[in-house]
Design brief:
heterodimer, A: about 290 residues, 7-stranded mixed beta sheet, two-stranded antiparallel ribbon, B: about 300 residues, alpha/beta, 2-enoyl-CoA Hydratase, Chain A, domain 1, 2 domains, 8-stranded mixed beta sheet
Chain lengths: ~290, ~300
């Protein structure tokens, strides 16, 4: 049977000499299907230079697009105790542990204090990759504490949403976080401290139905999916196809629930300008 | 053939069931457990207690908001419309006297027969329903009248028109604005407490659940569709979600459980309404002694401490 094993003469050329490795250098845009050089994409804050499609970015990159340089992270160690003892494909505890290891964070949110164009602000940024950016007891508590911090210091609050809604694995405990956060936002509203809600792709369910819709300004990124019920649930209920562009940021803007759709590259200056109006110029924050 | 020890245990269970006085909530929970064990020993198919409660909460004959409201306040006068878009029949609101005290009632309303179910949109409110509810509650606060809300919905309506008119915004708005009202608010889950659509009437100084009602972040069927990729495994998901009144009590999310007659509220609506009245009057007595500021503070404190299930 030896003739099947004729040794092939393979030239000993190392992979580097043979090929220019292109893997990961080029990315195909999901919007216009054009090929984009990754470096170009990084320079445009992960927005397609050709069609301006906004790619999803993680919570940490988000903070870098909004804040000046350094920031202090708050409540970093808060970690869920799995109140329900929930088990699905794998136990919730395990799911949490593997997420925490993979992403280097305890739950689906960063809560930080930093400077935005020279003004001290509190920013919460949701991490979609962490169980769909879902809100359980930890996310609820961290946002509530951020609201309380803004109440105490009168520094504006910015919450950047990227979430599928409340976290199923914590059941009614998750649901009550909607109430908890909104109660705290009532106090912030009464105190006249600015709250800006930034909605990114996707913002749905219990997150939209609580803090994300309660900003003094609700601002979204272009093309972001924003809604209450998921598209599949709606299709199953009404038994018909959804119209093109349904639940996009532009759709929600047109129906009157957003103040503006703002490009990622302009988000920081938009917020800085808005805060100038709401709180007065930097250094002269209103004490009213 | 069951062996001797099994036969012995069956006899024990039968005696225990026969002698158990089902007059407290704990005793009835025990009864359900004993019956489940007995059924299992006899090789009968058994259902888990959580799923039994889900089915009771959705029972076609279970009393709905108006059934209770008419019993609690025979002089009930309904008010309609959100002053903005329309009137949503999935939410009822209006005023009446509860044992001589003027109160505002707001509740999600389901129907008993097909015609009523369609009219009430199966108890699934649209944004105009939530805005009507808020208008009614703000009016009550303006005239210092206590508010009683009754929760009974599979969830807020998931449809194109509801999204267009801001379903999420309407719910979010209510959550924040209910926190601001300087009047007593008592919330009772009477059937299905379906997620944000239920909670939009649920920010109260006191939150109670009827014994066989459920309160959950997602319906058991939707949960099963996600975790088991099979919506028919609702019974399993119902257990995993911990959505019964005793469960929520253990998590510290509710203030009390209103007992139902044996077999469920539909067996004796009048008795259930009487139990409900007793709870409401006690709560009203406590709350009416508080100033508007104290009421707002009390409500805030309650919700602020909800769900402290984390380590630092």
């Amino acid at each position: 049977m030896d003739w099947f094993k004729v040794p092939r003469k393979v030239a000993k050329v190392s992979e580097d000499e043979k090929h220019v490795r292109t893997e990961g250098l080029w990315i195909k845009c999901e919007g216009c299907h054009q090929i984009i050089w990754r470096k170009d994409l990084e320079e445009t804050l992960n927005c397609c230079p050709k069609c301006n499609r906004h790619f999803r970015i993680d919570a940490l990159s988000r903070l870098k697009t909004l804040l000046d340089d350094e920031w202090i992270e708050h409540d970093r160690e808060l970690s869920s105790t799995d109140p329900l003892g929930f088990v699905d494909a794998k136990p919730y505890r395990q799911r949490l542990a593997s997420m925490q290891k993979a992403l280097g964070m305890r739950d689906a949110i960063y809560s930080v204090e930093g400077k935005l164009a020279g003004r001290t602000v509190n920013v919460c940024s949701l991490e979609l990759r962490f169980i769909g950016g879902s809100m359980g007891s930890v996310v609820g508590e961290k946002i509530t504490r951020a609201v309380e911090r803004s109440l105490a210091t009168r520094n504006p609050l910015i919450i950047v949403s990227a979430s599928g809604g409340a976290r199923m694995q914590e059941g009614a405990v998750s649901l009550m976080q909607l109430g908890k956060i909104c109660c705290a936002l009532m106090r912030l509203d009464q105190a006249g401290v600015p709250f800006i809600s930034v909605l990114t792709d996707p913002t749905t369910g219990g997150v939209t139905a609580s803090f994300a819709m309660l900003g003094d300004l609700n601002i979204a990124e272009p093309g972001a999916q924003i809604g209450f019920a998921g598209p599949r649930v709606i299709e199953q209920t009404i038994r018909q196809k959804l119209p093109e562009g349904f639940q996009t940021a532009e759709f929600v803007l047109q129906h009157g629930f957003l103040d503006a759709v703002v490009k990622r590259s302009e988000m920081k200056s938009y917020i800085a300008n808005a805060l100038d109006f709401l709180s007065g110029p930097v250094g002269a924050q209103s004490q009213a | 053939m069951p062996d001797e020890s099994t036969a012995h245990r069956i006899a024990e269970l039968e005696t225990a069931i026969a002698t158990l006085q089902p007059d407290t909530i704990e005793a009835r929970a025990r009864l359900v457990e004993l019956r489940a064990e007995l059924g299992a020993l006899r090789g009968e198919p058994v259902e888990n207690p959580a799923w039994v409660r889900v089915k009771l909460a959705r029972h076609v004959k279970r009393p709905h908001s108006l059934d209770y409201i008419h019993r609690l306040a025979p002089d009930f006068t309904e008010i309609h419309g959100d002053r903005c878009f329309g009137d949503d029949s999935a939410i009822v609101s209006g005023f009446g006297h509860l044992s001589g005290r003027p109160v505002m009632f707001v509740g999600q309303q389901k129907g008993h027969d097909t015609k009523q179910k369609l009219l009430r949109n199966f108890g699934m409110p649209k944004p105009e329903g939530y805005r009507k509810a808020m208008r009614a509650m703000e009016m009550a606060a303006k005239f210092k009248r206590p508010i009683i809300t009754l929760l009974d919905t599979p969830g807020a309506y998931p449809g194109i028109d509801a999204e267009e008119r801001g379903q999420a915004e309407a719910i979010a708005w209510n959550l924040r604005e209910m926190a601001r009202l300087g009047t007593p608010i008592i919330v009772v889950v009477i059937g299905e407490g379906g997620s944000g659509g239920a909670l939009a009437l649920g920010i109260g100084n006191r939150v109670y659940m009827l014994e066989n009602s459920v309160y959950s972040v997602i319906s058991p069927e939707s949960c099963a569709a996600i975790i088991y990729r099979d919506a028919s495994k609702g019974a399993l998901a119902a257990e995993a979600l911990r959505l019964t009144a005793p469960d929520l009590g253990r998590f510290g999310l509710i203030d009390g459980i209103v007992p139902e007659p044996l077999g469920g509220a539909q067996e004796d609506p009048a008795q259930t309404a009487a139990n409900l009245l007793e709870t409401l009057l006690l709560a009203l007595d406590e709350l009416s002694a508080m100033s508007p500021e104290q009421l707002i503070e009390d409500r805030y404190t309650r919700f602020r401490r909800m769900g402290n299930f984390f380590t630092e």
